[in-house]
Design brief:
By secondary structure, the chain is α/β, with parallel strands linked by helices. The protein folds into 3 domains: 183 residues, Aconitase, domain 3; 101 residues, no CATH class; 122 residues, Aconitase, domain 3 (2-Layer Sandwich), CATH 3.30.499. It is built from 17 helices and 14 strands. The longest helix has 17 residues. The chain starts with a helix and ends in a 5-residue tail after the last helix. The mean pLDDT is 97.
Length: 422
């Protein structure tokens, strides 16, 4: 790998042991990826708040020890300076205000407060959301970033035209400290061209449709770059958010093209870079029906204990929809309804009276985490329902529960009645 003089100084330890460990990690990582060099980045999103699971492994809640071990792969703690790149904390293990709902012990909450404070001291914006682009971190077209979180990566690569690979905790932390990332993968023009074409022959209109479509596309193309071809494909930003998250869950899609919507290709031919697709797949009514069955394959019981809305974290219009559906009504005594949204949007929803409306119905609006990341459900949950293909994909395996997938309206109806009726 070709290193700059500044890289070399970091590598020999001139900037301290933490910076040295970070650049060593990036060089090892870049070598494995086949990168010829590192490039500057000033936009990094990672996950470095450590909860009780991490503390139990090391037998300590000391944030310096936890960060050194889990973010820098160091056996002994080192002094970590202020981060060089603009950095934000992605979704975390708990709701910072309502952690008791998750069953978190006060001592564990204090330890997470300490871990969070450690990041803030080093310049991190603790946004605690999987959708930083909804609350102000909006990369520019062509900007080189280093982001974790599969649903965020596919969104900024595709919808915004920024450039990032799906980073891990260690590589993103190293980029925070050094302001560098390997110049490889989706940072390169060649990797961003479409390789597969999706011929859409059934309407994809609603947010439920876009969830299903994304889940099918991810399963079909895996880690390839698809271009979507069909009439009247005009998704909202919420639908693009849901589509990408679904495609990154069933497969490993980090980028896609939708001519006329996403910014890097105006036509299918331009997306493909003038080459024929390696494969063309048809998405039709049969494919849609099969995807519904796949997402609901773990579910047999129709009595629903828990309904989860907001993965990736709900946009304000999604919170408004839930409030409209539950207004002057009451959630079933046998069911819990939790809505997850970024804390900044929760405050706005509170000002609009949406939180009060939802809570008056017996539901909750939570922030900063989700059931998959925090690994928590209401006590006694055996059957859950969600409007998110991503949560329907992960939560049954993580928590050992049955999962139903459907529209927001279908899910809220299940919360109101205690039954899945779709």
């Amino acid at each position: 790998m070709q290193l700059t003089p500044a890289d070399e100084r970091m590598l020999v330890g001139d900037d301290g042991p933490a910076v040295q460990a970070a650049i060593q990690l990036l060089v090892r990582y870049g070598d494995l990826m086949g990168a010829e060099r590192l490039i500057d980045t000033d936009n990094v999103c990672g996950a470095n708040i450590f909860g009780p699971r991490h503390a139990r492994v090391l037998g300590t809640t000391d944030p310096a020890a936890l960060f050194s071990r889990f973010s820098l792969d160091l056996a002994e703690p080192v002094e970590v300076p202020a981060f060089r790149a603009h950095s934000c904390q992605l979704i975390g293990p708990r709701d910072r205000e309502q952690w008791d709902v998750q069953g978190i012990a006060p001592s564990d909450a204090l330890a997470m407060d300490s871990s969070e404070a450690y990041l803030v001291e080093r310049g991190v914006d603790v946004l605690s959301t999987c959708t930083p682009y909804q609350v102000g971190v909006v990369p520019q077209f062509g900007e080189h970033c280093a982001w974790m979180e599969s649903s965020a990566v596919v969104y900024i690569n595709s919808v915004l035209g920024a450039r990032t690979n799906t980073e891990g905790r260690e590589s993103s932390a190293a980029s925070m400290i050094t302001g560098r990332t390997p110049y490889v993968g989706y940072h390169l023009d060649e990797a961003r061209r479409a390789t597969h074409m999706i011929d859409v022959r059934t309407p994809v209109v609603t947010t439920e449709d876009w969830n299903l479509f994304g889940y099918w596309v991810g399963d079909r193309v895996q880690d390839a770059v698809p271009v979507l071809a069909g009439e009247r494909l005009r998704p909202s930003h919420v639908q693009l958010k849901q589509f990408g998250a679904a495609a990154a869950s069933s497969g490993d899609v980090e980028m896609y093209h939708l001519p006329g919507v996403t910014p890097e290709a105006a036509t299918v031919e331009q997306a493909l870079g003038g080459r024929p697709p390696r494969a063309t797949s048809v998405y039709d009514a049969t494919a849609r029906a099969e995807t519904v069955a796949s997402l609901c394959r773990t579910a047999t019981d129709r009595d629903v204990d828990f309904v989860m809305i907001g993965c990736p974290h709900a946009a304000l219009e999604q919170v408004r929809e839930v409030a409209r559906l539950v207004e002057r009504r009451r959630i079933s005594d046998s069911t819990s309804l939790w809505v997850f949204t970024p804390s900044a949007l929760r405050r706005q929803a509170d000002e609009e009276g949406l939180v009060a409306t939802i809570e008056a119905a017996g539901a909750r609006v939570l922030s900063d985490t989700c059931p998959a990341i925090g690994q928590f459900l209401p006590p006694g949950t055996k059957v859950f329902a969600t409007d998110s293909a991503k949560q329907a994909h992960y939560v049954p395996a993580i928590a050992g529960v049955q999962g139903w997938f459907g529209s927001v309206e279908t899910c809220v109806t299940a919360a109101l009645t205690g039954r899945w009726a779709a």
